[in-house]
Structure formats: C-alpha cells, structure tokens
Amino acid sequence: MKASAVLILPGWQNSGPEHWQSRWERAFGYTRLEQHDWQRPLRGDWIARLEEVLLALDEPAVLVAHSLGCLHVAVWASHSKNTHRVKAALLVAPPDTERDELRQMLPSWAPVPMNKLPFQSTLLSSQNDPFCSPARALAFASAWGSAPMDAGPGGHLNSESGLGDWPQAHAELQRLMLV
Q1: What's the rounded Cα separation, in Å, for the pair 141 and 137?
Q2: Pairing mode, if any, of strands 6-9 and 86-92?
Q3: 13: alpha, beta or left, given left = phi > 0 and alpha = psi -120 to 50?
Q4: Chain center to CA of 170
Q5: Using CA atoms, how far apart are residues 93 and 51, in angstroms rounded to an integer?
C-alpha cells in the first residue's frame, strides 16, 4: 500500500504541528485531507471532499481519523455508494456531538450515524475524554462494528495529551493497512 493512500482526517480546527496525525504525515508521507473551512465544518462539504479525494486515488484508502474526523467517516459511509474505496479506518477520540455543548458548536454534526461501517475499523478512546464518555465511545464502536481499544486516561488524544509519535496507535494502523 502506498503511503499516499493513507488519508489523515483531522477534526474540527485541523491538527497542529505537534499532533500525532501531523507527526505521522511528516514521518511516513501520509496524505492530509484538507478542508475548505476548518473553523465552521459543514457536514455536507466534508462528505463531498472525502468522496472527491477517494475517487481520485488509484487504490482503496486507509483512513486515520481524529475527533470530528471519526464522525466524518461514519457520515460519509452512511451516504456514499463508494465505500469500497476504503480498506479500513483507525478512528480516534470521536466526539459526542449530541451533547448539548457540542451540538451548539457543531450543529450540522448531530445526530451521530449509528450504522455499521462496511470496512474494518478500530476505535481508540480515552477514559477521560472531555468530549465523549467511555460508555458513549463504546456505543459508537459497537454500532460502527469497530474493534474498541482503550487508550487509558489520555484526554482527547491530541497534542495536549503528550502522545508524541504515538507508536502504539501507529502499530494498530499498520495492522489495519494489512487487512
């Protein structure tokens, strides 16, 4: 699998230079899916952008999603006729956009789709994510057919979590690349 077929899907406001997604992009040559507007993410715009990029690839992709990027994958998969263009997905720290405080900030992202993903996936979640309870993360994993993985007490599993290059998660991505 070519590194360019590994698509990095950041969440709301993108991933900064010290985020593990950015580190992986630099270290391994993965491709970041750029969005038109990182500050006001519109569900339909993000779905269309993912569809466009996947159709341009010459092989099925592996998606590496963080935060709102996880919901991006679930929403896209529930609408697209091209889900065969995805081989697998690593989903990290999905937010619960049905919570009142998040629904107000990200109004186009509720409800959260609860359909099984048509490709293999792993959902990594934290025991103390401020944007999603462990029980809700497990509910997402169950609904999406994702293998759940507990990342311990790591907050939102972002640059503030101090994960660095996060080799444990990269090992799971490498496993998914081989499916």
Answers
A1: 6
A2: unpaired
A3: left
A4: 14
A5: 22
What's the chain's average pLDDT?
96
CATH code, 155:
3.40.50.1820
- pLDDT 10s digits, 129-170: 999 999 999 999 999 999 999 999 999 999 999 999 999 999
Report the b/e string of 18-31 with b at 16+ CB within 10 A.
Answer: ebbbbbbbeeeebb
Q: Tell me: pLDDT of 64 over 90.
A: yes
How many domains are there within the chain?
Answer: 1
Q: What is the pTM of this model?
A: 0.97
Report whether 123 contacts 70 (CB < 8 A): yes
Its domain, for residue 173, covers: 3-177
CA 116 to chain centre: 15
Tokens matching residue 116: 């099984």
Q: How many helices (H) and strands (E) does the chain have?
A: 6, 6
Residue type, 111: P
164 class by beta-carbon count within 10 Å (0-12 exposed, 13-18 middle, 19+ buried)? exposed
Note the pLDDT tens digit of each residue in 4-39: 999 999 999 999 999 999 999 999 999 999 999 999
